[in-house]
Amino acid sequence: MAISEEFRQSLVPSFLYSSTKPLSGFDKSSMNANHNHVMPRPPYVSPSSKYSTGDAAIGSGRILIPAPKEKIEMYSPAFYGACTMGGILSCGLTHTGVTPLDLVKCNMQIDPAKYKSISSGFGVLLREQGAKGLYKGWVPTLLGYSAQGACKFGFYEFFKKYYSDLAGPEYASKYKTLIYLVGSASAEVIADVALCPMEAVKVRVQTQPGFARGLSDGLPKFLQAEGFGGLYKGVVPLWGRQIPYTMMKFASFETIVELLYKHAIPTPKDKCSKTLQLGVSFAGGYIAGVFCAVVSHPADNLVSFLNNAKGATVGDAVKKMGLWGLFTRGLPLRIVMIGTLTGAQWGIYDAFKVFVGLPTTGGGAPTPAPAKK
């Protein structure tokens, strides 16, 4: 990934770095260090700088803050902080970007007689609400999925390491897929608690005409109608949708990426360019997203139904939509949406990790703690 050295060293926030002792300059051994660690860089001073003071170089009317002299250590608090920030960007931006598709999908699930297909659904929304209406509910989408992404990716990295340490080196490698599955499920339980309130408001705003314009008036109306507990009415079906989705998202991604590096790319991962690694991340994410959409779609229909109708139950949803409807209504659109979404999420997440000097995700077994001698 081609990033200007000046740009990266000026903008990378120092709070993402650990508090280890500063490294002085380069040495040859650090150039061959494990690719999981950031190689140290000397302070950057702009060639056009007239003079420098302390840690900042000043020249040509601008102040250039040098890169941190420290590295992000794998599995340190700074590492998990960087992964959390990457998750916020990954999920918040992508879900907000596909708000129009999500809006059509939710309405197709709730009112299939009116929203018969993807194209007609967009047509109905444009006629009734105009182009602005296609982004209805974007604020709760941004806030809810940013919170979810922070917990999803941050806690996944934590639980993946935690369960690998519990298993030990031999079993961590032997049962790595199980570790991916359990780690991602553990993370998603927490992530959905963070997402659920905003998801409830989002669905109500998007699928009930005249209910509210957005979060600012939608949240008070929702609380007045159903109370605080109503915000978590859909948490169980949300778990039913998101936990299988996330287990498939992370486990299949890790497996697909490992297979791509093993069979499709002749060069070892640590020898590949960052651009190629990010391309693998996007491809692996897109393929994983297709599996995710199929696995989690019935629960997605339930979440939309329950959040749209006051007092509705799972039994009401099954009775009205039927089992076939639960599995298929809105599925083609969701496959397109989730495939693109998941690919983009992994691309953004790993791009941020590369930006702060961390390796991309996947391509090897989880890293357990070294065995005690």
Automatic annotation (TrEMBL):
<keyword id="KW-0472">Membrane</keyword>
<keyword id="KW-0812">Transmembrane</keyword>
<dbReference type="InterPro" id="IPR023395">
    <property type="entry name" value="MCP_dom_sf"/>
</dbReference>
<comment type="similarity">
    <text>Belongs to the mitochondrial carrier (TC 2.A.29) family.</text>
</comment>
<dbReference type="InterPro" id="IPR018108">
    <property type="entry name" value="MCP_transmembrane"/>
</dbReference>
<keyword id="KW-0813">Transport</keyword>
<protein>
    <recommendedName>
        <fullName>Mitochondrial phosphate transporter</fullName>
    </recommendedName>
</protein>
<keyword id="KW-0496">Mitochondrion</keyword>
<keyword id="KW-0999">Mitochondrion inner membrane</keyword>
<dbReference type="Pfam" id="PF00153">
    <property type="entry name" value="Mito_carr"/>
</dbReference>
<feature type="repeat" description="Solcar">
    <location>
        <begin position="276"/>
        <end position="355"/>
    </location>
</feature>
<feature type="repeat" description="Solcar">
    <location>
        <begin position="78"/>
        <end position="162"/>
    </location>
</feature>
<dbReference type="InterPro" id="IPR044677">
    <property type="entry name" value="SLC25A3/Pic2/Mir1-like"/>
</dbReference>
<keyword id="KW-1133">Transmembrane helix</keyword>
<feature type="repeat" description="Solcar">
    <location>
        <begin position="175"/>
        <end position="259"/>
    </location>
</feature>
<keyword id="KW-0677">Repeat</keyword>
